[in-house]
Design goal:
Blueprint lengths: L18 H15 L5 E8 L5 E9 L5 E10 L6 E3 L5 E2 L2 H13 L1 H13 L12
Antiparallel strand pairs: 1-2, 2-3, 3-4, 4-5
């Protein structure tokens, strides 16, 4: 007796980009923009209620891998809506998520944080090099 297959043949066609994929693609770009002084990573967890939680953070290897949580979002089993954890703002589709990411990455505070982290990685000249 053969197994009866009731599954559709096209299960893996038209797979949408996940919020994790979109965030990770942006995280991968930061190193080249900062000469690898500051990197970005995305941590993904699933909480006890089944929410997918994505944390986008900055990491500075030369500062003992210091991490700064830039923003976090979550979504359920359906990819959308995605929710900003800080405001609970609902991002209803991929384009709204992309617009949200653009806002966060281009925010003056984000740029200020990146510059402050870069400044802290500069080497301090020894006292012998300081003219008195």
């Amino acid at each position: 007796m053969s197994n009866l297959d009731l599954w559709p043949d096209n299960l893996l066609e038209e797979i949408p980009r996940s919020p994790l994929e979109i965030l990770s693609s942006q995280a991968a770009l930061l190193g080249s923009k900062t000469q690898n002084i500051i990197l970005a990573d995305v941590a993904s967890t699933i909480n006890e209620t089944g929410k997918f939680i994505l944390c986008f953070y900055l990491r500075v290897p030369s500062l003992s891998n210091y991490q700064f949580d830039l923003f976090s979002v979550w979504h359920g089993i359906d990819l959308y809506p995605v929710h900003d954890t800080a405001t609970e703002r609902a991002l209803k589709n991929e384009q709204q998520l992309i617009n949200f990411i653009v806002e966060k990455l281009n925010d003056k505070r984000t740029v200020k944080i990146i510059r402050a982290l870069a400044a802290q990685t500069r080497k301090i000249k020894p006292f012998d090099d300081i003219p008195f």
